Amino acid sequence: MKIYELAQSPSARRVSIFLAEMGIDVERVSVDIRGGENLSDAFQAKSQNSLIPVLELNDGTTICESIAICRYFDESYPSKHSLFGQTPLEKAQIEMWQRIIEFKGLFVAMQAFRNLTGVYKDRETCVESWGEVSRQRLIEFLPTLDKRLSESTFVAGERFTVADISAYVMCNFMKNLDIHLDTGLPHLQAWFETVNQRPSVRP
Length: 203
Hints:
GO terms for molecular function: transferase activity. This is Glutathione S-transferase. The protein has 203 residues and is α+β, with helices and mostly antiparallel strands. The chain has two domains: 2-76, Glutaredoxin (3-Layer(aba) Sandwich); 88-201, Up-down Bundle (Glutathione S-transferase Yfyf (Class Pi), Chain A, domain 2), CATH 1.20.1050. The chain has helices at residues 10-22, 41-44, 66-76, 88-117, 128-148, 162-173, 186-195; strands spanning 2-5, 27-30, 54-56, 62-64. It has a four-stranded mixed β-sheet with strand order 2-1-3-4, covered by helices on one side. α1 links the parallel β1 (2-5) and β2 (27-30). The longest helix has 30 residues, at 88-117. The chain is globular and about 50 Å long. 31% of the residues are buried.
């Protein structure tokens, strides 16, 4: 099997960290997103959304969307320390925080970046004012995570999960928007420094 990706993109980073946590190595194929390779007929035949990452199985079956890919590996290589949780309550809490981080944090950060930088203006409409609004929405979301991390060691509880991976990728990516963790967010900052020591997040 192989994964088609742009290694430094947030979505690809989520899959890479997840696989590193599981100790799974998969062949990688780099896709030139900036150059529009993902818009080619060959790539679109593999990806239902024309985006990366895409997991291609040995039989030719493909899976896109980073969390869907992570779920495939989680189910295919079961562990007593699943990053998606073990008990019904744990699974629900992880899913809850995962979605909160995606919808209020990671996706908002990506909207801000794309609209402010115009990096893909050759293929999408960019609205700078929406980028500014999105950037502010991200800033206003960070105290929610800081408060949560004043109550628990990790985002969804007392152990590292896929929700932490999404939050970590978000915190790394927001540097591109000139948003940084500081002493005003002490719990989030301490959590970030802890996660930053995990071997799985190292390039």
